[in-house]
Amino acid sequence: TNTALQAAAESDFTPGMVFDYSVDSTKMIQTSINAAVERIQEFHALDKIIEDSSKFNKLFGVARAKDQALLSDLKNNCIRSELASKKSTREGGRYYKA
User: Which domain of life, per UniProt (predicted)?
Assistant: First the structure.
């Protein structure tokens, strides 16, 4: 059954597999466990990246909203001052601000 063990070692470990607990099968089980642990760690790392990305997007969204509000205020102030400068009337050869 060495060939069966070899085939099992080359494929992923599935629950319910029956092993001949020799040195080879113990190594194979340990290898499978190590591979599973690595996968779990990769998933945890991905979760962390996704979480950090989500936090960044929220903060970026807030900063962007504040920037938009500031730009809007600045634009409105420019329009107001432009209108105020144009609202001068001519009376008797002189310009007066309205």
Answer: Eukaryota
